[in-house]
């Protein structure tokens, strides 16, 4: 190799690196040039250098604390300029008032590399998204939720029995996150597949094979999810999957085994999602050349995202609610009395759907837990057309826009002493009330969480049965401030959360 060639190569490398550096400098001046306050980015990662070191939940809380007086701030998802809005007024604009400009979520993946992950309700773009949502909405009517609550109550009874067996009789330490993930996993088995499974009874559960993988956040799984949620273009390039291959194959096998069994027996089950998804498949308007595989994958994708969403968020909310009740015995006593009074007044040991909805203080405890510990700390949208945010800032097409849920929920003007868990502040708040866009744990507008009512009734059923039988006390080895898991994209207690169960 000649000296001239080496010199030329070195010059080209220096020029290339210099041009790349100049591009980054220019790119990272994006918000400065627009007069928007912004987080100083890392030269390669933008503002994503926190990933795997602290939780997403902590990051957005720190943004709120650092920029508490700012209506919006600029950050960089890698090299991508992203706007974070932090006031109820701007949240209302993004989520509802000007929804036509923010119809799509940021997440996306390729059907060829991730057939299920690319077809979930959270991944679709409009108009396919709105059509799918319309078809799925009947699954969550009040009538269906009443039927589902019967299944939830049966699993909540098994949850109570497991607590007695393992954590009182055998005095085993409790991992709340894992315990409640078993409960929600068993509930999903009934409500999605119509099968009776029991991780709570230590019986080998096919659903627990899938869900235990979903709720245990490893470094690599957390990194994969972070890339999918924050840098979807890179995720598509790396062919990352929202659901692992083993979980995907297991869901497919379970789904079609249930379908085959029902066809052979000539049975249907209107209480579960399988039957509804089969009807959905018949009603889908797909391209003529798409074949049956796309329709099958569409069904399976909705089942998969429902499993992940309902287990992860409900188990986290239950964990933090029980943790707070253990540290607030006077409030726990108030809730316990409300539940006991309802049981006596109704003349039944287990409260049904309408009974659970009447428990106002139980509602307040759940809502306050969702305020202080929203499972999803930000709501992501993508600007689909040039949009005038205010007299100073214009959002360009393709720019991601985040609603900082932590900033809304921790605003001391709306929630005095926001770090304090105080259910009384929610005593007159209805489950559907967003408090003028200051309270959005399930999102809001057309993209609000379709399974919201399902998730809340699942939490109600478990809390009502547990607190009618037990009191909870703090674990001496567990600090009051439970550190979030840095590997989890959604909020999850790193230790799992611990309390001590005591018979009432």
Automatic annotation (TrEMBL):
Its EC number is 1.14.14.1. It comes from Operophtera brumata. This is unspecific monooxygenase. Belongs to the cytochrome P450 family. The chain crosses the membrane at residues 6-24, 219-238. It is found in: Endoplasmic reticulum membrane; Microsome membrane. It catalyses: an organic molecule + reduced [NADPH--hemoprotein reductase] + O2 = an alcohol + oxidized [NADPH--hemoprotein reductase] + H2O + H(+). Heme binds at residue 449. The keyword Cell membrane does not apply. It is a peripheral membrane protein. PROSITE patterns: CYTOCHROME_P450.
């Amino acid at each position: 190799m000649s000296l001239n060639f080496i010199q030329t190569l070195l010059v080209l490398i220096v020029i290339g690196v210099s041009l790349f550096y100049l591009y980054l400098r220019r790119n990272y001046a994006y918000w400065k040039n627009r007069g928007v306050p912004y987080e100083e980015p890392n030269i390669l990662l933008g503002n994503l250098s926190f990933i795997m070191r602290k939780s997403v939940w902590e990051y957005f809380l720190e943004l709120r604390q650092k920029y508490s007086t700012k209506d919006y701030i600029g950050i960089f998802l890698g090299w991508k300029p992203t706007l974070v809005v932090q006031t109820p007024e701007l949240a209302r604009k993004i989520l509802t008032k000007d929804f036509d400009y923010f119809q799509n979520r940021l997440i996306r993946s390729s059907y060829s590399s991730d057939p299920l992950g690319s077809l979930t309700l959270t991944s679709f773009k409009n108009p396919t998204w709105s059509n799918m949502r319309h078809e799925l909405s009947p699954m969550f009517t009040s009538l269906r939720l009443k039927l589902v609550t019967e299944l939830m109550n049966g699993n909540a009874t098994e949850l109570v029995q497991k607590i007695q067996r393992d954590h009182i009789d055998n005095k085993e330490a409790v991992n709340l996150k894992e315990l409640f993930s078993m409960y929600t996993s068993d509930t999903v088995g009934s409500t999605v597949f119509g099968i009776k499974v029991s991780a709570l009874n230590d019986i080998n559960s096919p659903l627990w094979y899938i869900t235990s993988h979903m709720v245990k956040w490893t470094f690599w799984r957390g990194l994969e999810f972070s890339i999918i949620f924050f840098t979807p273009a890179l995720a598509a390039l790396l062919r990352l999957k929202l659901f692992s291959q083993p979980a995907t194959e297991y869901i497919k096998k379970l789904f079609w085994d249930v379908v085959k069994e029902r066809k052979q027996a000539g049975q249907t089950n209107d209480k579960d999602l399988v039957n509804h998804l089969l009807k959905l498949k018949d009603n889908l308007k797909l391209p003529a050349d798409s074949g049956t595989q796309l329709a099958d994958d569409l069904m399976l994708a909705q089942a998969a995202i429902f499993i992940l969403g309902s287990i992860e968020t409900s188990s986290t909310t239950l964990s933090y609610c029980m943790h707070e009740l253990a540290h607030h015995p006077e409030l726990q006593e108030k809730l316990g009395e409300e539940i006991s009074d309802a049981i006596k007044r109704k003349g039944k040991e287990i409260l049904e759907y309408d009974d659970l909805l009447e428990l106002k203080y139980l509602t307040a405890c759940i809502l306050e837990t969702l305020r202080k510990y929203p499972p999803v700390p930000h709501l992501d949208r993508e600007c689909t057309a040039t949009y005038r945010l205010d007299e100073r800032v214009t959002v360009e097409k393709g720019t991601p826009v985040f609603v900082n849920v932590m900033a809304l929920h921790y605003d001391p003007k709306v929630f005095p002493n926001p770090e304090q868990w105080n259910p009384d502040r929610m005593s007159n708040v209805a489950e559907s009330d967003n408090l003028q866009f200051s309270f959005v744990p399930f999102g809001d507008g057309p993209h609000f969480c379709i399974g919201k009512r399902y998730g809340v009734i699942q939490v109600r059923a478990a809390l009502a049965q547990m607190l009618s039988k037990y009191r909870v006390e703090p674990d001496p080895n567990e600090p009051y401030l439970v550190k979030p898991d840095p590997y989890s994209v959604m909020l999850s207690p790193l230790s799992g959360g611990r309390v001590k169960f005591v018979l009432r």
